[in-house]
Automatic annotation (TrEMBL):
Descriptive protein name: Fe-S oxidoreductase
Source domain of life: Bacteria
High-level lineage: Bacteria, Bacillati, Actinomycetota, Actinomycetes, Streptosporangiales
Protein source organism: Microbispora cellulosiformans
Length: 73
């Protein structure tokens, strides 16, 4: 009987977590689509896809700002 209570509690917790995740995704989608369209930005990104990807990789994984700092000592 205890396993039934644990299973029900787990299902309830999962349902709450999924509901919160869906709510957050919808909020972020509405936030991202609330601005004015920028067709020139999309066109530029398509024409320069390689440079855009490289810039993101350098900025995110390379931490360009951190590499500009001199080490202490």
């Amino acid at each position: 009987m205890l396993w039934v209570a644990i299973a029900i509690a787990g299902l309830v917790a999962t349902a709450v977590a999924v509901a919160l995740a869906v709510r957050r995704v919808l909020f972020l989608y509405r936030l991202a689509t609330s601005g004015q369209p920028a067709p020139e930005r999309v066109e530029y990104a398509r024409e320069n896809a390689g440079a855009e990807v490289r810039a993101q990789l350098v900025e995110v994984f390379g931490q360009r700002k951190l590499l500009k700092w001199t080490p202490s000592g």
